[in-house]
Protein 1
Amino acid sequence: MTRAKRNRLIYNCVTFAVVIIAFIVLQSMIENKTITRALKGQLIPICCWIVMAVSLNLVIGISGELSLGHAGFMSVGAFTGAVISGWLLNAHGMENETLRLVLAIVGGGIAAGIAGVVIGIPVLRLRGDYLAIVTLAFGEIIRNLVNVTYIAVADGHLVFSFLKKNVPEGARMLVDGASGAVKISKISTFTMGFILVLFTLIVVLNLINSRSGRAIKAIRDNRIAAESMGVPVTKYKMMAFVTAAVLAGMAGALYGLNSSTVVPSQFTFNQSINVLVFVVLGGLGNVLGSVISATLLTVLPEVLRAFADYRMLVYAVVLILVMIFTNNPTIRSFADRLIAPVKKLFGGKHSDKGGAQA
Amino acid sequence: MIFLDNLVNGISLGSIYAIIALGYTMVYGIAKMLNFAHGDVIMMGAYIAFCALQYWNMPPLVSLVVAMAACTVMGVVIEGLAYRPLRQAASLAVLITAIGMSYLLQNLALMIWGANPKSFPGSMINIPTISLFGGELKITGATLVTIVANIVIMIALTAFTSKTKTGKAMRCVSEDRGAASLMGINVNQTISITFAIGSALAAVAGILLCSSYPTLQPTTGSMPGIKAFTAAVFGGIGSIPGAMLGGLLLGVIEIFGKAYISTELGDAIVFAVLIIVLLVKPSGLLGKPVREKV
Amino acid sequence: MTAVKRHSTTKMVPVPSHSIVPERDLGQQPVLETNHLGIEFGGLKAVEDFNLTIGKTEIAGLIGPNGAGKTTVFNLITKVYEPTNGTVLINGKDTKGMNIVQASRLGIARTFQNIRLFSNMTVEDNVRIGLHNQIRYSMMEGILRLPRYWTKEKKMHREALDLLSIFDMQDLADVQAGSLPYGAQRRLEIVRALATNPSLLLLDEPAAGMNPHETEELMENIIKIRDQFQIAILLIEHDMNLVMGICEGICVLNYGKIIAKGTADDIQNNPVVVEAYLGKRKEEAK
């Protein structure tokens, strides 16, 4: 086994180990009732944000495209999931919650994937900042469209309209325009969240370390050279983009079914930015980094609740300082010299880590 | 008449977008970065003008100057502290820093002025409403001032970049930073000046924005900021006439979309038009296509 | 097949001949054939009336002063640019309207003047990208780690190491490509290009930045590659020892036009070339 391969294997094992151990610890804390209420309420959102961060990392870190509309796919997934679950319950009387949750998550993923294809075909022809602005625009369009979407179950049928007056009187509303998805039966579970995180890690890590993943990274490193080697650029950019969209849709479905109402304004541009911050702080292309930073940054504001007034201010300052300290060449070379002996101790670093450019 | 009314409103809103977009486009052209905090500088400018008028009882013109001066300083300080250390860094790192700066400004405003919206005083622009066509078309003072201000800024800025030494230096830096510094142009200083001009314009935009839409709160700047950024891309980012054209078109499209198609979908229409334009012309309306060197 | 007949009569004669194909390749389908190839950039004719035929196992050189349009010719052949005039035939197929990827699949591979490696990936992974269309399995097989994934990955690993061994680089397989020394990066680019199983290899200044010893080695290796893989090689190079030493046919370009074509002897004795290019160089040397 070559060194690179061994390092990769160790990295993947550590990633899975961290997630599985965290799950076992938290699960036992739930059973012993030693977990705080606040933390317990955060468990499912944490799973969602991990999936969001890892999938966005696939687009930004691995594929090297700046997407600012990732929350849009989450939104598609959340509303699709809520509709599927509501429809199965109200029109078909499906009582099995786990089955409904699985179907909702799969449906959310498929719907977001379709949105990803529709958006990706035109968008991925653009480059750099233009791609960023167009993904931003699509995120906002999705939010606007959900704002005027009305979906209800009437006499066992699904009614879909952009005008509220088309929905018959007395129908069971599932999505009520700007009021969002209402009266959702909360069926998300932490175990399902954990399974989704594992699924995401398997998909993303296996993809990265395969023929397709290498093609995606090659395009990121040097598009012209990759094309000259016969790698079709659009196909692989699309692959990364749509895979990420599907995963974001699944996370959205889990997120949506974790609360009784979901409104479109939960999935704004700011939410996309939040996920972007997880990815960048965790390290571009570093999957374990995304998992850790998504977890910490979701929990942190809760921990900082004592400083309620200042916490966002502190967050902003920390964000700026971290970016300057990790990216300024002078500071960085100084830090590298400090870290060098430590790094030697652990033997070489994973080749995909951090090195990616925007 | 409703058509004309909408058109005037569209041009007015578009003028505000255009002034904000100028800040984005100049900074992008010269520093090659998306300054996400620009929208929040607008909000700060509006708050400062509000304080000058309301609390310190300054006359409108003085308030304007105070707000512009404060924003200029703010812009230069932000650039020097947060962006300059990242001059060689990857563009994503700079983008995240700008996002952090945007959060910082919003939360500073939240701490200083609180979350409750303030009503921006109409006394800022004290010009009576003009009635045309026997009162069927009313143009408010704010609208008039906005449109005039936009034209003046446009002419002044074009003259500045083409006639003055500093303006030419700015164009040099935007073409090729390395070559410009070899020719003896102080790149850092030029970028600072760009931020100063962009931020001063942001103060003007903030005041104009709040004179037409008087609700002032810490998030006031973000949506117009995003729209203006869109406008800059729409017109071709880096191009000053492009920002003007993009801003005006965006404002008109938004108002007409809201009036004739759907109020809720106004933003979606704006963004959809942007996407269509970029697909047909990937570098924006007036942007220059870039050929990659192999 | 008419194209083949046309060359069968001609031999290496200086301008205005159409061909510098060595005798052993005559009567076989030429790998590359350009006819009246030209491109304009905003009115400026960067390349004009460029005619060149390269035989199946030929090593040919493209030389000329800086800015003569040599790299532009490469970009036209590999479809980075669509020509404004003329045609490019690869193995007899017209490449009109094709993109870079399609052209690559016809059997062209290239290296770049300013090295374009996948610098954040390992040396082996760089070569595996070259193997992308040679050894295939689908995305799903990769994600689900189906048996095909394992067999194909193993095969890729073996082939990558085999290819790296041409330049004795198999021990560097795990190194990040961007951290290799300059000469090794140039060699890796050649290996990566070879991995695509090309019939025509385009080398853009392969010896740039190499010391005389490395250049010597490179010359041997270029011939070895040609013999082993039975492919044609067209190279741009400023090192005249290399060009005169290994190129069977040489084409001289100046201001976008071919000013001379022929063997090393022909070129060295051609007064037009001596004036435009070599002459100047000799004077400078003194």
Protein 2
Amino acid sequence: MLTIKNLKVSIEDKEILKGIDLEVKAGEVHAIMGPNGSGKSTLASVLAGREEYEVTDGSVEYQGEDLFEMEVDERAQAGIFLAFQYPVEIPGVSTSNFLKSTVNAVRKAQGKEELNAVQMLKLIREKIKMVGMNESLLQRSLNEGFSGGEKKRSEMLQMALLEPKLAILDETDSGLDIDALRIVADAVNQLRSEDRSFIIVTHYQRLLDYIVPDHVHVLYNGRIVKSGDKNLALELEEKGYDWLKKEAGSVPA
Amino acid sequence: MPTVVQDRYAEVKARFQQLFEAQQIQLNGHASHPYHQFRKEAMKRLEGLNFPTRRDEEWKYTSVNRVLQPEYQLETPVEVKAAQLQPFLIDGLDAIRLVFVNGAFREELSDIGKLPEGLTVMELDNALADERFGEMVQRQLDSLMEGQEDPFMVLNAAFARHGLFIHVARNTVVEKPVYLIHLAAPGEVPTFSSYLNIAFAEQSSEASFIEGLFELPGAEGAYFNNLVNRFRLKPNSHIHHYRLQQEGREGFLISNADIEQDGDSTYSSYAVDLGGRLVRNNLATTLNNQGTGTNFYGTYFAKGEQHIDNHTFIDHAMPHCQSNELYKGILTDKAHGVFNGKVLVRRDAQKTNAFQQNSSLVLSDKAQMDSKPQLEIFADDVRCSHGATIGQLDETAVFYLRSRGLSDEQARAMLQHAFLEEVIEFMKLEPVKDFAEQLIMKKFEE
């Protein structure tokens, strides 16, 4: 699904990612953890196609294609979904109009027939139930004035509607209370399938109580310093990041 | 050199004088009609006035040179078939339709039917001679001209032949809106058309007016529309005034709306400016008593070399009044936008709530926006705010939309549309709102 090799990324001449290698196979859930400033969000942003980051070395292949040759919208159309840490508020664009436009844009790009109004409504109703979002939010401007939890639900709703092949959750759980956290976890768990992969970027272990990852990687200072299974997350919860920082510090660069 | 400018305008004034005299000859026996007297006085007044130059603060960003240069002729009869009106009819809107072509009222294109009880629509000259309304109309005309120094207002008074008088009786809520279609049908010779409408809302009445300013499909050529609307709102009356403007490529439009509100009345303007080569709108209200509401909502979208200038003035003379003003627009190519919104809060106007905002998207290097929000406050217990922003699209929003599969173009169109939508949303009549949105959509596709 996704192969990252020796990825180095800078922003304003400061190297943030210093050589990342990661292989995500179809159906796998990878958790990326690490302290603040370790480069977690940079990794998510680069995969989604943010332009302010400069890729200085390495490669990323998505389904056998060079990801960096794909525009942001092409990535989305090819099945990559990024759940934003801070979803953007867009006044004047109603949530329902936005959802209709994106679903049909992606369907069209994938050679599927666009949905008519009735089919669309049915689909949106079905998915909105799944993420437990209030239907009245559909009539409101996208994310505008939404609470933190509502914004995350809105992201999960978009994910459910767009049915991505690779979903990247960028600290989607940060700042969520337990109910909202469960919503996110439920959405991911319901969407887990053999041909869909997830990269879950998180600062806190708590989300992984609800989403059991296949692999856990710890990012520190721009490198993956440790990989393991779900037990690594538990270990981190118990011991914090300091022991890893020391370990990483003792490894000659 | 000022003398040169004055000479040039003297020539322009002389041309208008000739036009006026030529028209007068056709009047035959009507020359003594009070309306004609009014027009003659206006023409005389014009002699003493100068057309503005960019040295005038109020015209700093808009030069009327281009508007005054052509040698205009007055309205020539043009054949227009009912089918040609089709693009301007509003789906789902049951309205009283009054159609003007090149300034002349066209009964055969209009759909007046039986007017609802309490609503009177008359041509101005008839109204002026009318037993019931004559005096009222005369007072409105007089107040329009009293101390009037705007040459375009005076010019309008001199030339408007087929203006309307619209009267809404006391305690009458007119459900059916009045839709005025002003159609420009330019030809080889530049045409000059003037409209003057006076709407009078009696105590506790309510009505909606929709003004549509369009160019006849297929027509092409230069023209100058000089428009004046006077709204007189008696206590506790409510007027909704929609203005959908899509003048032609070579159309010049100068429009003045003069509003006078008594206590507890509400006047709301919903303006959409999309067309015209050069457009200047003056929208001004005076508040006579307490408890009034004034809403000025405007959008503009200019491309190519269009120039759209909105000047507004809200005169808070009395306490406990509220005004909301929101103007938003998009400028691209070499288009030029101007916003000058003045809110005056006089010393007695305590407890005034006045909000004003102008925001523009300037989407190309050569497009220009001059925005001047002016708030002058002489009272000390008021809540007022004003602001202006000029900027580009929010790139984080573009990225967000693209990350959901929308193309760059789709994302930008969606955001631009949303930008204007915030203002369109205020429109109360759904069919008009939908129609305005369609006009804007078409403008995007241009």
